[in-house]
Write a structure and sequence with these properties.
Layout lengths: L3 E10 L2 E6 L2 E6 L2 H4 L7 E11 L2 E7 L2 H9 L1
Parallel strand pairs: 3-5
Antiparallel strand pairs: 1-2, 1-4, 2-3, 4-5
Length: 74
């Protein structure tokens, strides 16, 4: 499971961002509250919830571990 990503914002396209981590781009869904704080080229550290289904693999990103914990509860 992916739990944390540290890298640079390469693309902003609501509701997701692409984070470049050592030349690999990860598509991460983020809430509007986080999206509005990010800019192209920013260095970020995102705590990740990895969602796996039969037909999907999605990453949800949060700036704080506490926010990730709240997301996991619901």
């Amino acid at each position: 499971m992916i739990g944390l990503l540290k890298g640079q914002i390469e693309l902003l396209k609501r509701p997701f961002v692409i984070v470049d981590v050592h030349d690999v781009g990860y598509k991460v869904l983020v809430p509007d509250s986080i999206y509005s704080k990010l800019s192209l080229g920013d260095k970020v550290k995102l705590f990740i919830f990895t969602y796996v289904r039969e037909d999907a693999l999605e990453l949800f990103g949060f700036l704080a571990a506490e926010d990730l914990s709240l997301f996991e509860i619901y």
